[in-house]
Amino acid sequence: MAGPQGTQDADLSSIVVAGLPVDRGEEVLTTEALAFVAGLHRRFEPRRRELLALRRERRARIAAEGALDFLPETAAVRAGEWKVAPVPRALQDRRVEITGPTDRKMVVNALNSGARVWLADFEDASAPTWHNVVDGQINLIDAFERRIDFASDAGKSYALRPDAELATVVVRPRGWHLDEAHLLVDGEPVAGAFVDFGLYFFHNAARLLARGAEDPNSGPYFYLPKTESHLEARLWNEVFTHAQQALGVEHGTIKATVLIETITAAFEMDEILYELRDHAAGLNAGRWDYLFSIIKNLRDAGERYVLPDRNSVGMTSPFMRAYAQLLVQTCHRRGAHAIGGMAAFIPSRRDPEVNAAAMEKVTADKEREAGNGFDGSWVAHPDLVPVCRASFDAVLGDRPHQKDVLPAGEVTAAELLDIAGAGGSCTAAGLHNAVQVGVRYIEAWLRGLGAVGIFNMMEDAATAEISRSQIWQWIYNGVVLDTGAKVTPDLVRDLVATELAELRAELGDQAYEAGRWTEAAGLFEQVALADEFVDFLTLPGYALLG
Questions:
Q1: What is the pTM of this model?
Q2: DSSP assignment string, 389-443
Q3: Cα separation of 48 and 30, whole Å?
Q4: What DSSP line would sit under 330-358, residue for residue?
Q5: Which residues contact 441 (CB under 8 A, 6 or more apart)?
Q6: Which long-range contacts (CB under 8 A, 24 or more apart) does 16-23 make?
Q7: What secondary structure does DSSP assign to 455-519, as a single string?
Q8: DSSP code for 302
Q9: pLDDT below 50 — which residues of the chain?
């Protein structure tokens, strides 16, 4: 494969791989690939840092004003009649998408799942150890080359189905806020987003396009996480334009779906699609991170923004319904796909009652999304693929999407911010669950696992963020629970100590000591109880990953 323009003159001596060696890592961390990533860093890192500073400034304004609104300076974009560029055949029908990390077993299972799209995740469903980062890239290349078949230690065989039956791969790189400490350029860590995108695009763009004539599932496609403004989408567009030029790929070949998983992005959906209009494939309702973002941005804006138990807030809550309606309206008006949110329930093959309840909830969720105009939706488990497909088949039939559906009614800023209208309450059971999920997820994350089944739910970093940020908000606002107890740091510490004692009894001393429970509890208390709110738990957590 040809290297990027200018790599012959790149200063490779200032590129340092600081991570421990990964088996076959040299196949990914080639001189040419590292030079390409270094080029992204040198060209775009200053702007990334400016945008992160703008996030902090905007958050300060929200704290001072206690409100958000649509941007007056971009009114012309919202009023315009433009549309995004058409998407290739592989991204026309997206009625079922499955998500998951890029470990070898998941790669095979996701591609074979029957879903139309697999979100290959380097972000919230993957703990960013250097091994996971590099090994995930190796696994994707092996999948495209059909050399990923393997047998587990238990003797179970994993093999890919024929190409025509495989899901289309859409890669989610890390968000703008995360650095990759194991790759340094000019003495600075490279953004995780540049590493994940750069390595994947460099190694696979030509490979995928070469297969394009025979394989309609091939192409360099991406999901963009944690976007907070159209200016951040503009930076991604500039990265895409540069990367395509550098590798001689036709402009607009890259297609990206943006997760609307921050409250600030919800007010800039039109603008985000506009900035990416040559490369935009759609928007996704990233519901879990969206709840986290609401808490984070409005945590100190008053009681009317206090979120009740997270398990009591669903897509039928008025403010979430408004968010979904606006997303479908915006996408379909602009010719883009609207993709629904995650069904995080995990079916139980051992407990029929749990399984039946999970299937019922997922069916209701997906039928509601299909009926509300979404073109497809997410699941976290292969067993849920047929459930989601049936819901969308019933509405779509043979059509690949329903972009002709445009929900009526104008969504206002007040509706998007009507947290109080969600109803629900703050309960002792909800607080207990937040502690359990937070501690158990963080412990698994510290061991390198990013997607974890907890209480029949597939939890990732987003749901752990909701758990700890909700506790912070409840403490800050002096919330009184249904039991009459006030949420305080001491109450939370007592619950954490109780959870650790119960885990020791449940696991046994030996298994408990083999885990990272003490570190997990310490990190959870740090991000849930600190006087100053920590933007992302993965920032202090990253130093503990090793």
A1: 0.95
A2: HHHHHHHHTT-S--TT----SPPPHHHHT--GGG-----HHHHHHHHHHHHHHHH
A3: 25
A4: HHHHTT-EEEEEEE-B---SS-HHHHHHH
A5: 452, 454, 459, 460, 461, 463, 464, 467
A6: 16/183, 16/184, 16/185, 17/182, 17/183, 18/181, 18/182, 18/183, 18/184, 19/130, 19/131, 19/133, 19/134, 19/182, 19/183, 20/130, 20/131, 22/130, 22/131, 22/134, 22/135, 22/138, 23/135
A7: TTEEE-HHHHHHHHHHHHHHHHTT-B-TTSPBP-HHHHHHHHHHHHHHHHHHH-HHHHHHTTHHH
A8: -
A9: 1-9
Residues 227, 314, 287: CA angle, nearest 5 degrees: 15
Query: Residues 6 or more apart from 65 whose CB is under 8 A from it?
Result: none
pLDDT at 6: 39
C-alpha distances (whole Å) from 299 to each of 63, 73, 317, 456, 534 are: 8, 26, 19, 29, 12
Residue 58, CA distances (Å) to 64, 121, 268 in order: 10, 28, 14
- CA angle, residues 483, 485, 489, in degrees to nearest 5: 140
Nearest Cα residue to 364 out of 380, 382, 351, 345? 345
DSSP 67: -
Query: What is the identity of the amino acid at 384?
Result: L
In DSSP terms, which residues pair with 222 in a beta bridge? 171, 256
- Give the residue from 383, 487, 348 showing the smallest Cα distance to 431: 487
Structure tokens at 130: 């250097």
What is the three-class DSSP state of 313? coil
| CA–CA dist 110, 106 (Å, integer) | 6
What 3-state DSSP class applies to 387?
helix
Q: Are the CB atoms for 112 and 161 separated by under 8 Å?
A: yes
Distance between CA atoms of residues 236 and 497, nearest Å: 43
Q: What region does 216 belong to: left with phi over 0, alpha with psi -120 to 50, or beta?
A: alpha
Name the DSSP class of 173: P
Ordered DSSP codes for 120-170: EESSTTS---HHHHHHHHHHHHHHHTT---EE-TTS-EE----GGGSPEEE
Nearest-CA neighbor of 432 among 501, 356, 503, 492?
Answer: 492
Query: What SS3 class is residue 180?
Result: strand
Which ranges in 11-120 belong to alpha helices (H)? 31-65, 75-79, 104-111
User: What single letter denotes the amino acid at residue 392?
Assistant: F
pLDDT tens, position by position, 50-80: 999 999 999 999 998 888 999 999 999 999 9
Tokens read off for 265: 């992005």
In this prediction, residue 66 carries a pLDDT of: 83
Strand pairing class (157-158; 337-343): unpaired
**Rounded distance between C-alpha atoms, residue 504 and residue 85, angstroms:** 55
Q: What is the per-residue pLDDT for 127?
A: 97
Catalytically active residues are 172, 460
Tokens of 446: 């510290």
